[in-house]
Amino acid sequence: MSIALHPKPLLRQRSDYTYRFNTKTGRHGWLRLTPAYSLKIVEELIAHHAHMQRIFDPFCGTGTTALSASYHGHESATIDVNPFLVWLAQAKIAHYSPEDLAATSSACAVSLDLVKRMAVAPVSPPPIYNIERWWAPEALEFLCLLKAAILQVTRDCSPERTLLTVAFCRSLIDLSNAAFNHQSMSFRIDNQLSMAFDNDMARIFAEDVQFVLHGAAENPSGVGQVFLGDSRNPADITEGQFNLVVTSPPYANRMSYVRELRPYMYWLGFLKNGRDAGELDWAAIGGTWGVATSRLTDWRRPIGHFDSMLLNEALDRIALANNKNGFVLANYVAKYFDDMWAHFQGLIPVLMPGAAVHYIVGNSTFYDTLVSTELLYAEMLTMLGFDAIECRPIRKRNSKRELVEFDVTARWLSD
Ligand SMILES: C[S@@+](CC[C@H](N)C(=O)[O-])C[C@H]1O[C@@H](n2cnc3c(N)ncnc32)[C@H](O)[C@@H]1O
Fold it and tell me: What is the pTM of this model?
């Protein structure tokens, strides 16, 4: 296999190459998802194209690629298996008129007035486990009233409902005890938020609405489409072919996107119970939460799985590690790469000849075994007939020297 491997001299952690870069950037900063990638990476890959590109992101997440593509006048399509992220990305790439913005401002004022006067029946709190860990009683009461007021004041699917709901999502995190400073998410146990009901909490929501409106005023010029579906079969979901793929797939690191998104998903009704959350994680590539973990024990590699010496050696080392979970973890890693193998095979029908692909992905360690995701992707792309394959290191991921994020890039010639 001929793959260009770049050395990794002086790699830095570079917070500008993480989700942190997006938090103050208009619509990109509406809601944070820790594993979102940096808008800056995307811009470097798409901004220089003089002609309109058809850009595909098979792993939408918060819609970074689709929104950036739209701001640069490109056409884009993106897919995610998580309905909440599809809703969010659709909200982010939508066009909002000055009338929509004005209507949202008034709806915000009317909603807050209803809440202040308690002139609306609160919705029931969401069925999230241990809800008292998330919100102090007065914050929970405020959110239940506010949600009811938004529903009363706005029409279903209207721009006002969408924009106020995005702001509501920001506020529910601002008012929570959750600390989003680490991927695994923890709770502040020292200070339960306790605020003057109709002052501070109302002000937080009003500020969140202002932040959202500021981004909404900047309309993108390109056309984007966001689909709910499984990127192992993109041809069944999208229309036409693409000449550029820019994406950050799930990493093989046991990270659950559903877990981090729980508060939004329960409040907005996308999740009803823990079992649904586990099912969604099982449907997602690399998901490993609740029922997804228990199913891994019985999972076996399918016929036509990704057969790689590099992978098989890593799986053996993980399975035989001196730890009772070695076997399940080896199954987790095997399933991750078999799913990505299915994805790459499914990608080919939606690529134009000459299409460039960029997969922004990090490697992982399991016990002391390094899983070189970038090399395994490169191997899959080689087996499928891509050329010009490169693994370009972008940044160090954390203090562990060997954990690096790469841009795995290749060109599709034709079948
Ligand atoms: C690393 S995140 C993408 C982050 C995104 N680039 C952003 O900036 O927000 C990977 C995404 O892949 C989605 N995903 C996982 N398995 C999928 C599948 N089979 N089909 C489509 N999307 C999937 C997850 O729900 C998650 O949103």
Answer: 0.93
